Amino acid sequence: MRLSEFLAAVGAKTPAPGGGAVASAVGALSAALAQMVVNYSIGKKNLLEQQGELQAAIETLEKSRAHLLDLAQEDAAAYAVLNELQKLPPEDVRRVREMGPAVERAVEVPWTVLLQSIELLKDFERLAPITNKYLRSDLGIAAVLAEATARSAAWNVRINVGDLPPTRKSDVLAKCDALVQEAKRRCEHVEQATKV
Fold it and tell me: What pLDDT, in 10s, does the model give residues 127-173?
């Protein structure tokens, strides 16, 4: 889907793609922007000692970008199923049979996006001191976008845990909050390291 088509689909009066797909797409943009920074760092004379690490980072960021784009589609699909089931009467056989797995999937996808955003921020922390100094603002922006991805994914985890068993729900919410705080800390580290 082209970006313009994705934006039109998000803006349409349909349940999906929605916030989850947007969070994943923002994460993919974050990874892509960091890739640009690394690409401008490869071959720089003052960064010759870091070339192996930079080459490895390109591959890692490419995988992250592709994974997050896949997750955007998966989120839209997962929520579409959940939304359809929620419209059925509570006693409907299909709803009773499929609701549990649908809720689990609707939590699993944004949870994975949240974890992926943390990994991006860890990558950015490592890259901050070894990348082209003229692209510091781009790496800082990538970090802000990765934190936004984490916070956005957390919203979707929180909204979808409602039908989980209470113990599992409280465990997921506690871990979710801890990851959001970790994303904030890591983003701040990157922003400090990329200040101009």
Answer: 999 999 999 999 999 999 999 999 999 999 999 888 788 898 999 99
How many separate domains does the chain show? Answer: 1
Does some domain include residue 129?
yes
Pair of tokens at residue 21 = 């797909």
Residue whose entry in the numeric block shows the structure tokens 């080459």: 55
The token pair at 41 is 């760092």
Is residue 98 one of the residues assigned to a domain? yes
What is the pTM for the complete model shown?
0.91
The enclosing domain of 158 has a CATH number of 1.20.120.680
Print the domain residue range for 166.
15-193
